[in-house]
Amino acid sequence: MKYYLVYSHLSQQPDSAHEIHDVMCANAMANLGYKTILAYPDNPTSDLSLGSLFSPFHLQKPRESFVEFYDIQDRLNFLPLFIPQLIRKGINRFNESSLVCKYYLPFHLKHKINAVHTRNWNFAKAAVKNQIPTIFERHYFAEHPFEEEIVNNPSFRLCVTQSELTRQSMIEAGMPPEKAIWLHNGFNQTFLQRQPDEAQQWREQLLKNNREKLVIYSGALYPFKGVDLLIDVAKLLPTIQFSITGGTEEQVKSYRELARSKQVENIDFLGWIVPRSRLISLFQAADLLAHPHLSGKSANFTNPVKFFQYLASGTPIVATEIPPLMTFKKTVPLAVWSPPDDPNIFAQSIKKALENYPRKSTGYTENIEYGKGFSWEKRAEKIITYLPEVNP
Predict the structure, then answer these.
(1) What pLDDT score was predicted for residue 23?
(2) Bond from prior residue into 275 cis (ω within 30 degrees of 0)
(3) HEC secondary structure over 147-198
(4) Which residues contact 137 (CB under 8 A, 6 or more apart)?
(5) What is the tens place of the pLDDT at every residue in 259-303?
(6) Alpha helices by DSSP H, the chain
(7) Over the Cα atoms of the chain, what is R_g?
(8) How far is CA 248 from CA 84, 134, 257, 271, 306, in A?
(9) Where in the chain is the domain with CATH 3.40.50.2000?
């Protein structure tokens, strides 16, 4: 038996969108019936597990903390790769990457896997050199030229980006055009589950001071994501309750202080929601889901997971017109679109959406059915076509 291996780093810390992406890619492959491993460097506080260095291939089912943090199903195998403390400190120039790529991969993993899927370029190169079919993901613009002997190697199958602009950046850096594609992210199938009782509990918890409308934002708390803009929008709409999820403790504290300094009383910052499965009912509790974003370089390559989670929830959306999402402007059944950077227009868009699409506890089936085409499993099905030798 051989396995499809996804390699990543797992910190289980807030603001870890790329890690979540990797886990969801692996989870989707497992859900499609492929024997899948999620491998990652394990950094225990002591070296009591030294035996794992010499006999590392012991597959595990995910710990409860993993399940709660990433909201995954039970088909995925985990493979922690033990990193001794001396190597973590980079003694004699032999570091964590060297151990994984020069020791674990060729001696303990190579003969047990039929493909590699990773965002880690060093690991991707090592897999290609070991003649393992490799899928590489790059979500930002290329910073350096790609090594021709790697990208032109038959074992290097595909470079996956998240927008056409990013794909063109890969090609300009030497990636063969036929090996560069871009794909949207996806949503976990659990977001299709209806949870009306839990949604009502959220509404009772979050709606305050006789406010009856609830707008939810979920995602990273960076200015370019439009969080600052959303605070200004909330000030323009004092009768509507805004609730924001995501971010680190420091970011949450900073944004709470910013809202107080602007005397905005109708916005809450809920922090990182765990278990992540609670987001399902939270999105269904909302009257509207907000997808703000500022213009600029980051708007050219962002491809947020939340957009597809929003669709699966069946809750109407107000979205910003940024390049990666413009293909959806004419096709998403229930959404109001707003140009970036202007809180006044975004506020008017929220008013319009609330008037046109009153809340349904069952969700709007138009968005739900449309969104089904953008699950992580649908994304995985496209990727696996580049690996004809990998079978369920």
Answers:
(1) 96
(2) yes
(3) CHHHHCCCCEEEEEECCHHHHHHHHHCCCCHHHEEECCCCECHHHHCCCHHH
(4) 21, 25, 117, 118, 119, 159, 160, 161
(5) 999 999 999 999 999 999 999 999 999 999 999 999 987 777 676
(6) 17-31, 51-54, 64-70, 85-88, 96-99, 121-129, 148-151, 164-172, 196-206, 227-236, 249-261, 278-285, 305-313, 343-356, 365-371, 376-384
(7) 22
(8) 28, 33, 14, 7, 17
(9) 3-186+375-384, 190-373
Other C-beta atoms closer than 10 Å to the C-beta of 221 total 23
CATH placement of domain 190-373: 3.40.50.2000
* Distance of alpha carbon 254 from the chain centroid: 23
Whole-number pLDDT of residue 43: 77
Determine which helix (DSSP H) or strand (DSSP E) holds 336, and give its type and residue range. Answer: strand 335-338
Contact status, residue 139 vs residue 154, Cβ threshold 8 Å:
no
Say what angle helices 196-206 and 278-285 make with each other, to 10 degrees. 70
Q: Write the single-letter amino acid at 76.
A: L
For residue 317, give the nearest of 345, 296, 342, 346 by alpha carbon.
346
**Which residue do the tokens 């949503």 mark?**
187
Backbone angles phi, psi at 20, to 5 degrees: -60, -40
Amino acid at 164: E
In 3D, which of 225, 221, 265 has the Cα closest to residue 245? 221
Contact between 371 and 311 (Cβ < 8 Å): yes
pLDDT, residue 163, reads 86
Residues with Cβ < 8 Å from 155, sequence gap 6 or more? 127, 128, 131, 132, 133, 134
Token representation of residue 240: 């509507």
Q: Which two tokens stand for residue 288?
A: 């509207």
In the CATH scheme, what is the code of domain 3-186+375-384?
A: 3.40.50.2000
Q: Which residues of the chain have pLDDT under 50?
A: none
- Spatial distance between the Cα atoms of 347 and 288, rounded to a whole number of angstroms: 12
Reported residue count of the chain is 392
pTM above threshold 0.85: yes
Per the CB < 8 A criterion, the answer to whether 21 and 38 are in contact is no
Q: What is the pLDDT of residue 165?
A: 87
